[in-house]
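Reviewers asked in the last cycle whether our approach scales beyond single polypeptides. To address this, we selected a multi-component target totalling 258 residues and predicted its structure end to end. The input consisted of the following lines:
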Amino acid sequence: MSAGLEVTGLGVALGRAPVLTDVGLTAGPGSWTAVIGPNGAGKSTLLRAVLGVMRHSGTVCWDGVALDALTRRDRARLLAYAPQLPVLPEAVTTRDYVALGRTPHRALLAAPRAADRAVVEETMARLELDRLADRVLTTLSGGEQQRAVLARALAQRPQVLLLDEPTTALDLGHAQQVLDLVDRLRRTDGLTVLSTLHDLSLAGQYADRLVLLAGGRVVAEGTPAQVLTPAALRTHYGARAAVVEGPDGPAVLPVRRD
Ligand SMILES: Nc1ncnc2c1ncn2[C@@H]1O[C@H](COP(=O)(O)OP(=O)(O)OP(=O)(O)O)[C@@H](O)[C@H]1O
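The resulting structure, written as structure tokens, was:
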């Protein structure tokens, strides 16, 4: 048994086809694991299986306890999920949406306590959403909505944060702001992060472990420098790329021709 998250022999079949086969990974408390891989590799499916909303074989454990054994409410206190394409409710303000993250911590039908409201305000401020708090969520820009979805997940104050492509709608500055915040939370609060990231340079800078999925299987796993190699990018992405050493890890530079 290991502390933190342990995924063993995970398999998912959708329709007749296997989408994930025998996937295993471990993520210690406070670590950041980025799941990378080409389109259709199974990254989002893996996050949803860990979350427990996708029927799967194999086991997902936290501190040695199978998550299947937990109630929904206990799972929601442990794991928060920011999906790639969230369905956003209509006619709800940003503040009320972020406050939904406190639901697993409140008694059924109880009004929010001052402590819940404080968490919501603090989380919005950290993501520069405070000036948008009274706006209707669906009127925010794509990047602002993406920050609101992350704020809702963080307001849950989970131990494990599952992030599906958290930076796709964000400009570079906001992408760094979000990733820096997640990085700070894992260092200060021991938040365990499992994210998908298409931007391999950001993955190389922020994650301490990478899991490379291809065709639903783990084909490489290790530190960013071990996984992000020109050969792996050619084999699994069909990409021409150079890997350069950045100050905080490897960065991937597309190369125009051989
Ligand atoms: N409901 C479904 N029924 C059948 N196949 C599905 C279903 N949902 C996903 N798939 C397939 O499972 C595979 C993995 O999908 P998934 O979304 O996990 O990939 P991904 O690695 O996150 O891709 P992307 O990088 O494009 O977001 C894909 O081939 C996808 O078409």
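The two ends are 46 Å apart (CA to CA). We regard this as preliminary and will revisit it once experimental data from Aim 1 are available.
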